[in-house]
Amino acid sequence: MKYLLLPIVGLALALPQAANGQVKDDKAYCAELSSLYRRYVQNSPGRRFDVEAGYALENCQKGNTAAAIPVLEKKLEASGFSLPKEFKP
Predict the structure, then answer these.
(1) Structural domain count of the chain
(2) Does the chain have fewer CB atoms within 10 Å around its N or its C terminus?
């Protein structure tokens, strides 16, 4: 029984570190998407304010990447931009 418990404890200790790495990757990816959106889409001439994108940018700043990333990806792709490959999951 003791030998079965050891791998389970090891796995439990490793999971938070893996999840933390994913959070950092998501934050970096979200920041990159936000930067691209602001630079090339939001500030393009004749562009009106996009409320959905505004909420996504705000969510990204607050760390709510799960809500922000899909919206920013959609907005960038709809504007003809390719997504950054180095962050692509």
Answers:
(1) 1
(2) N
